[in-house]
Amino acid sequence: MQTPSLEEPKATKLSRSQQTVFEVFVVLGVMLLVKDVADRFNAIGAGSIAMWCGIFVASYFMSKKGVSWKDRGLTLPVGAKSWLKSVGLALLTVVAVLLFMGLVMPLMSELLGVHIPESATDRFEFFLGQPMVFFIYLIVVIWIGAAVGEELLMRGFLLNSLIELFGDHKKAVTAAVLLHAVVFGMLHISQGVPGIIGTGGVAVVFAVVYLLNGKKLFPLIIAHGLINSISITAYYLSDGNIT
C-alpha cells in the first residue's frame, strides 16, 4: 500500500501580487503598442485610441476578479446634494490644477532651465480655423478619450492595482500614488520634462481627490474635461499662440 506524498503540489498559478503586476504590465504594454502603431499612421487622437484599448484589456482582467468599473467609482451622483458636492469638488480641483500649472510649473521650468518643446502642440494644428473639426475633437478626444478614458485607466485601474499590490496602509498608498503619477507623467513625454513633471503633479492632485472622496471618478472626469477644454480652447482661439 502506497503512502500519500507529503510534498506540496507545485504552484501552477500566479500569486495575487504576481497576477496584479502581470495585469498592469499587459495593460500598459497594450496601450503603448497601440499608441506606437497609431502614431505611425498619424492617427488623430492616437493617445485616446491607445487609452481605450488599455481600458478594454483592463476590463477583462477586472471581470475575471468580479470587479466592475462601478466598484472603482464610475457612478453618477444621486440627489441634488450629491450633485452639488461633486460639481463643487470638480471646480475646486480645476482651480488647484490651474494654479499649479500657472504658478508652480513656470517657476520650476525656469529653475530647471527646461521648457515644453514647440513640437508638442504640432498635432493640434489640423483643427485651427475649422470650428466643426475642433468641436468634434473636443467631444471625442478631449472628453471621451482623455477625461473619461484617462480617469478610468489611470485612477480606476492603475492606482487601485498599485494599492492592491503595495497594501492599503498610509505609506503603501503614498507609494502607489507617486508611482502611478510617474507612469502618467511619462505618458506625456512628448511634452518634454515640464510636461512629465506637470502631468505627474496633476496625477497626484487627482489621486488625492479620488481617495479622499471615497474613490469616486465623476468629479475627476468633470475636472479633467474642463482643464483640457480650457487649454485646448485657448490654443484654438489664439490660433495656436497660447500653448
TrEMBL record:
<protein>
    <submittedName>
        <fullName>CPBP family intramembrane glutamic endopeptidase</fullName>
        <ecNumber>3.4.-.-</ecNumber>
    </submittedName>
</protein>
<feature type="transmembrane region" description="Helical">
    <location>
        <begin position="83"/>
        <end position="108"/>
    </location>
</feature>
<feature type="transmembrane region" description="Helical">
    <location>
        <begin position="195"/>
        <end position="212"/>
    </location>
</feature>
<feature type="transmembrane region" description="Helical">
    <location>
        <begin position="217"/>
        <end position="237"/>
    </location>
</feature>
<feature type="transmembrane region" description="Helical">
    <location>
        <begin position="20"/>
        <end position="38"/>
    </location>
</feature>
<feature type="transmembrane region" description="Helical">
    <location>
        <begin position="44"/>
        <end position="62"/>
    </location>
</feature>
<dbReference type="Pfam" id="PF02517">
    <property type="entry name" value="Rce1-like"/>
</dbReference>
<feature type="domain" description="CAAX prenyl protease 2/Lysostaphin resistance protein A-like">
    <location>
        <begin position="134"/>
        <end position="229"/>
    </location>
</feature>
<keyword id="KW-1133">Transmembrane helix</keyword>
<keyword id="KW-0378">Hydrolase</keyword>
<keyword id="KW-0812">Transmembrane</keyword>
<dbReference type="InterPro" id="IPR052710">
    <property type="entry name" value="CAAX_protease"/>
</dbReference>
<feature type="transmembrane region" description="Helical">
    <location>
        <begin position="128"/>
        <end position="149"/>
    </location>
</feature>
<dbReference type="InterPro" id="IPR003675">
    <property type="entry name" value="Rce1/LyrA-like_dom"/>
</dbReference>
<dbReference type="GO" id="GO:0016787">
    <property type="term" value="F:hydrolase activity"/>
</dbReference>
<keyword id="KW-0472">Membrane</keyword>
